[in-house]
């Protein structure tokens, strides 16, 4: 069967079971858009290519399937670099297809030409510059294999315009061997010696901690984690990227560690004698000053990516494996630590003395952002998906929303990408239309990608957006107050401009505002009744509110700062 390269590309996506792509057409990718009209694949037309990438990420994180984005060459391709970098940092499976100028024009500085494979070489698992239409099916099959196996991540396929217009004889790879990926061996056998070494460390421990990272979610290991934790009675902490991997309501869960983690979670890691890292990469936001991080602990490090071993913290035992397989093997060994009664008694004392807290809200003050989040959460349906931008609101959402299952917390971790929350919410809702999706956003983040409200409205994607509007770039303001003598340089945004209610209404959405506790309760209840169009709520919050606990950058986790009301306790 003879097809054009463009037809072969779309047919290859269909072969992969792709049901949705996010994109924006342009000259170099235009031939690929024509066969989309005859395809079963749904195309979501975005208002900016960055939105396409973040929507694809939200889709991937909500469904566990790779997200797909299609954009044109030049600025279309460079506009999606940020989502690619974000997906690379957070190990999110993404396939990005970019148009490219005709092969004869490559290197001539042709209109809308850029070397996107060169630009993204350091932020993709792999990328392809396809040289002939006949190679397109192989490139697509290989891209999906690469994006979803081993450590997941983004893969880019760059398609010159003449390649998409050329004819080819249809074929599709039937085996992995046909993908032509020499040296790529993502599946690894468990090292029995490493398992035995881990078992010995567990048996000798008296103060263990399960340090759960995003790799636990990527390997779908939540059930295995729950079984192992309950059998061994070990305390569990879940990083920002692992929220939902272990139920917040579980008695063994201490919460989130790190710069804005719970006191008991941070301190338990500092005082433990065995740290079992499950798909975590010892990020600097978790470790603080690395020389002081869990200084007296032995370390078992489980990760699918060998490159993570000993990169930041030396492991006593390194197990290269997906987290699920490693936990099954460890559980089968029946290894248990020594009596943990004394350890749990100490942990409970920290939880009792330093619980998560904030000043009680009153009717005559601006809203407390933490209370807004808790109020939305209390009224939310079980299984609600929460996305966020980056900053104070992200940390408050991670702290104050209780996550009980995987795939319900979607945020930008490693790259810290402002503007991620709203388009990610759209992608998550497309992937999981049965779920309610709330975006907890800041006014600074919202303004970066708010044009995608039009996408949500026109495409019939009824997300709900809570803007914690404190009129500042809140996290920057917090640092300037605490570490720069309150010198607030270029951080004020204005509470009144833009008018978020009018903005939402101008884009066909429902806009609301709350400035006090009664209005807050009313608008949340009203928003929950609206399920056919996007809803945006402008919550006016106190700009002086700060995120606590907090570990200053470069400080030891032992120097964690608790809420002012708890100091001296």
Topology (SSEs and partners):
Blueprint: E1 2-4, H1 5-15, E2 20-23, H2 30-36, E3 42-45, H3 49-63, E4 67-71, H4 75-78, H5 81-90, E5 94-100, H6 116-119, E6 126-129, H7 136-148, E7 154-160, H8 161-165, E8 167-169, H9 192-204, E9 208-212, H10 214-218, H11 222-232, E10 236-238, E11 253-255, H12 263-271, E12 274-278, H13 284-287, E13 298-303, E14 317-320, H14 323-332, H15 341-353, H16 369-379, E15 385-388, H17 392-400, E16 409-410, H18 421-431, E17 437-442, H19 443-449, H20 452-458, E18 464-469, H21 474-483, H22 500-506, E19 510-514, H23 517-529, E20 535-540
Parallel strand pairs: 2-3, 2-4, 4-5, 5-7, 6-7, 9-10, 9-12, 10-11, 12-13, 13-14, 15-16, 15-17, 17-18, 18-20, 19-20
Antiparallel strand pairs: 1-8
What can be said about the biggest beta sheet? 6 strands, parallel
Report the portion of residues in β strands. Answer: 15-25%
Q: In terms of structural class, how would the helical and strand content be classed?
A: alpha/beta
Total helical elements = 23
Rg computed from alpha carbons, rounded to a whole number of angstroms: 24 Å
Query: Quick one: CATH class of the largest domain?
Result: Alpha Beta
What's the CATH topology name of the largest domain? Answer: Rossmann fold
Annotation, overall tally of beta strands:
20
Strand order of the largest sheet: 3-2-4-5-7-6
Helix content: 25-40%
Give the number of domains. 3
CATH architectural category of the largest domain: 3-Layer(aba) Sandwich
**3D shape:** globular
Mean pLDDT: 97
> CATH homologous superfamily name of the largest domain?
Thiamin diphosphate (ThDP)-binding fold, Pyr/PP domains
N- to C-terminal distance? 76 Å
List the uncertain runs: none
